[in-house]
Specification:
42 strands, ten-stranded mixed sheet, alpha+beta, 16 helices, 20% helix, 930 residues, nine-stranded antiparallel sheet, single chain
């Protein structure tokens, strides 16, 4: 039976006109115009050339906005929400309606509404409110081409705004317009639920997989995917909006991510007057360059018998090496590389550290020369010297695999495949990058389904070079002349993760720079906001930002409130809720050095890029640091920054002769840390003139941790006065000597006269913290006098009973009082007997607020371990062991870590001392904040 003829949408406009006329005489005359004019007027679009009369004549009678108000708000005012517009045509009446081909800007076979279904807010599972769900098709010109499926959603209470959603991957799946804002704030309803009319399409072909490229073998389908389906869908959607409400939209927006981000940019480059504002997240704008890069990576992995292929273990090895080298370059050890460009300067060093001895593959602990070449291919841009892509593009950005991008592992669903020899065609068992590149070569370029893509040279495509350029002109969004879009008030927000493992952020950066070169910095500053997000992959990564980009765009377009630095909330499960500033390119978030690592307020957006191996804390000239080690040895460390040579001189010891010297050279590792010749000890230079390191012990292996100061308190006056450094402190330390190391903890008072008194709640226990009490029973007493020869104080122990005295007593060690930015950090070097020698460091016995000690620390333990620690509010991580922290526990100024890494620490001017008595971990670890 012959189906009934679809009723033209034009007749719906007539019905809408009559219905709207019934609302009052003020609206009637204005609506009596042609459908074509209405569609054109909806957002100034239409025509084949991006705005003018084109295919459609413009008539002066533009339909009014709701209430007959002006279409724009005064600049600088926040947008006002107009009363919602209600439909004048029932949802079901849209079913079966058609739009002739002559009323769609680009060639088609016309459009048909297949279904129009009322959806009630009370329907099961519906969280989008009352709306009309419209589904339809746009027929092709080529009978061999598939049709375009489109979706339009028309709310019962319309806010007079429309949103066009872009696609993803190779498309083929209907974008139905019911989605939430991508990377939007948690809990914010979808735009449809907020009253927007929304729409999308499947780009003119249908597939169950967004990595299926077979559609591109048909010219019309390829052109639709390249962007033509977007214009066709927009024209139909705007006609339906007008048919239902008889009122034009006040504002129209386009939101897209990945391929959808490319869609957004492609649209405003071709038809600049149709949209008021655009959000392009991680846009695949250099689409052809991306696919050529995919092929280049595949060739590096699989040619030469798969010699360059890397399994997951090797890929994770690369990622770990990059993270270790670069994580702290932004001041925070947070599994995010923010200082990407400084990190890039370490590429050679990172790759050298990964090379297998001799360059041959010897297992998962290193990379062969062929595998290192693969990493370089992933990392490096493609520079096209023999031909150009569309819009004269000569480059495709590389991926930041050596700057924090994660192409395998728990933070992404992708990897480099499970086998060294790929299938033809490539499948999900092969590298994700290569799968899409293989499809592109087969169906976009050669149109030979069995073509071996490994034989296709991206830098020299030979006879296919012209075809590559032709395809690039169809599919890429690299035209930098956005002047027509800006001229009508268009605003653009772009966002790209610097750790994107699918679409190179470097191509987006290249486009942004070309945009500036084309329209000028001032124009870009006025109309574009480009945010780059460290740690963010392709919807993956160690940091996934949530922020309200739509509200930012609306405030800009409708209220004239230009977005600036935003705040992004991390959506990654394991770090959910931490925040970072959303920095405008080229700036990146740098930790200020204090406060919670999880709070954006403690970061600044900076543009600095420097040598990551340079250390601002390194002295400018040869400098001597004074301090001691865990065996109670008093020592000096001389550093020559010109040669990076060091000399450790023992000034006082019970285990070896005074004057013993150790020498060696320091090798930069980044973050002011240097390897040494002291059996694994790492020397770290901290702000304020503090040095953490190690020295070979008097006997045995490993190293003894040391801490020393560039500036110390000296007291040669008579009588001696200690007022500047006198106070009540907590203390942690170790008794090491020649036996087993045991932790030490307690309270100590250093008086104005130079006398001191220790108090402990229990002898021989690291749990001996207590509030200082002059009448404590577990006590040690004595006094200190300055030794000008050593540049330190001699410690003399007196009787534990009776009052404080400054004469007599037994020489039992020395004390170095470091001055860190003027604050006293006393270091007591205990040498009462060789078997009980040790070290104690002081921190004020006063309340320590959560956040005050936040930061990344270089740590050295009495077990001869060099590692990292992070303090972030109530979170503590030491060498990979995580714990929760309780502040001022058990006494003010002491922080207690739970069973995840049991122990306590004190903090003083960037110096940290951590003690534990669990019998497994080191009794004492010393640390300095980077």
């Amino acid at each position: 039976m012959r189906p009934p003829r679809p009723r033209p949408i034009l007749s719906m406009i007539d019905a809408a006109r009559r219905a709207r006329r019934s609302l009052g005489p003020a609206l009637g005359p204005a609506i009596g115009i042609s459908l074509v004019s209405l569609v054109l007027a909806a957002c100034g679009g239409g025509g084949g050339g991006g705005g003018g009369a084109g295919f459609f004549p413009i008539v002066p009678n533009n339909p009014p906005s709701s209430g007959g108000q002006p279409d724009t708000d005064p600049p600088g005012n926040p947008p006002e929400n107009p009363p919602p517009v209600v439909p004048v045509v029932a949802c079901a009446d849209l079913a079966g309606k058609s739009l002739p081909a002559s009323l769609i800007s680009l060639p088609t076979g016309g459009a048909t509404v297949v279904s129009a279904t009322p959806v009630a807010a009370t329907d099961a599972g519906n969280q989008l409110g009352d709306y009309c769900r419209v589904r339809g098709t746009i027929q092709p010109v080529d009978p061999a081409s598939q049709l375009i499926n489109f979706a339009v959603n028309l709310p019962e209470k319309w806010n007079q705004k429309t949103i066009h959603f872009g696609g993803g991957g190779f498309d083929g799946v209907l974008i139905d317009g019911t989605e939430v804002i991508r990377f939007g704030p948690a809990g914010k309803p979808a735009p449809l639920a907020l009253g927007y009319a929304t729409y999308g399409d499947d780009s003119g072909h249908q597939s169950s997989s967004i990595t299926d490229g077979k559609f591109a073998a048909n010219d019309e389908q390829l052109a639709n995917y390249g962007g033509l389906s977007l214009k066709k869908t927009r024209d139909v959607a705007q006609a339906l909006v007008l048919a239902r409400y008889a009122v034009k939209p006040k504002h129209a927006y386009f939101l897209g991510t990945s391929t959808g981000g490319r869609d957004a940019l492609s649209y405003i480059q071709r038809w600049p007057l149709d949209y008021d504002g655009v959000i392009a997240n991680e846009p695949a704008l250099n689409y052809t360059g991306t696919r050529l890069s995919n092929v280049a990576v595949g060739r590096a992995l699989y040619n030469n018998g798969g010699a360059g292929w890397m399994n997951v273990a090797k890929t994770l090895l690369v990622q770990k090496a990059a993270m270790q080298a670069c994580d702290k370059l932004d001041g925070a050890a947070d599994n995010i590389v923010s200082n990407v460009e400084s990190c890039r300067l370490l590429n050679t060093q990172i790759l050298a550290s990964l090379r297998c001895s001799g360059g041959a593959d010897t297992g998962n602990t290193c990379l062969s020369d062929a595998q290192l070449a693969t990493v370089r291919t992933i990392e490096s841009p493609l520079d096209f010297t023999t031909y150009s892509l569309g819009n004269g593009v000569k480059r495709a950005g590389g991926y930041n695999i050596l700057e924090g991008a994660l192409v395998a592992g728990p933070y992404t669903t992708r990897d480099l495949g499970t086998r060294p020899v790929p299938a033809n065609p490539a499948t999900s068992a092969d590298a994700n990058m290569y799968v899409t590149g293989d499809q592109w070569v087969k169906f976009f370029v050669t149109r030979i389904a069995g073509f071996d893509s490994l034989t296709f040279d991206p830098l020299d495509p030979g006879s296919y070079a012209a075809r590559v350029t032709e395809v690039s002109n169809l599919t890429d969004a690299t035209n930098p002349n956005l002047a027509p879009f800006f001229a009508h008030g268009g605003r653009l927000i772009m966002l790209h993760g610097l750790a994107d493992e699918v679409i190179s952020p470097n191509s987006t950066i290249d486009y942004y720079k070309q945009l500036i070169a084309t329209v000028g910095q001032a124009t870009v500053d006025q109309n574009v906001r480009f945010y780059t997000v460290p740690g963010m992959g392709h919807g993956t990564g160690s940091f996934i930002p949530n922020w309200d980009s739509l509200a930012a765009l609306e405030g800009w377009v409708e209220g004239g409130l230009a977005p600036a630095t935003g705040v992004a909330v991390d959506a990654v499960a394991g770090s959910y809720g931490r925040t970072r500033p959303l920095c405008l390119f080229p700036s990146w978030p740098k930790y200020r050095g204090a406060g919670s690592l999880d709070a954006a307020v403690n970061y600044s957006c900076v543009t600095e890029v420097g040598d990551p191996l340079a250390c601002p804390n390194l002295p400018a000239t040869a400098t001597t640091y004074k301090g001691g080690n865990s065996f109670g040895e008093e020592l000096r460390v001389q550093i020559d920054p010109a040669t990076m040579a060091y000399t450790v001189t023992i000034d006082a010891s019970l285990q070896r002769t005074a004057g013993t010297v150790r020498t060696g050279s320091l090798v930069a590792q980044g973050s002011c840390s240097y390897t040494s010749n002291e059996s694994g000890a790492v020397f770290s230079f901290a702000p304020g003139g503090v040095l953490l390191g190690g020295v070979n012990p008097p006997s045995g292996g490993g190293f003894s941790p040391l801490v020393a100061f560039q500036n110390t308190f000296e007291n040669t006056a008579s009588p001696a006065v200690f007022n500047p450094v006198a106070n009540i402190f907590n203390t942690v330390g170790v008794q090491q000597g020649t036996g087993t190391a045991s932790a030490y903890a307690g309270a100590v008072r250093l008086r104005n006269a130079g006398t001191f008194q220790y108090c402990r709640s229990a002898a021989g226990s690291a749990g001996s913290f207590m509030i200082y009490d002059a009448n404590c029973t577990e006590t040690e007493k004595g006094y200190i006098t300055y030794n000008t020869t050593h540049g330190a104080f001699d410690v003399r122990t007196t009787a534990p009973t009776g009052g404080a005295v400054t004469t007599g007593g037994t020489l039992s060690g020395s004390m170095v009082i470091g001055l860190v930015n003027g604050t006293a950090v006393p270091l007591h070097l205990v040498r009462d007997a060789a078997a009980t020698a040790g070290l104690r460091i002081f921190g004020l016995q006063q309340s320590l607020m959560a956040g005050a000690a936040d930061g990344s620390y270089a740590m050295a333990s009495v077990k001869g371990e060099s590692r990292e620690a992070t303090v972030a509010g109530s979170n503590f991580n030491l060498g990979g062991a995580a714990a929760s922290l309780g502040y001022d526990t058990p006494v003010p100024g002491v922080v207690q870590a739970d069973a995840g890494r049991p122990g306590n620490f004190i903090f003083n001017s960037g110096v940290l001392g951590f003690v534990t008595t669990d019998g497994t971990n080191a009794a004492l670890e010393l640390g300095v904040r980077h």
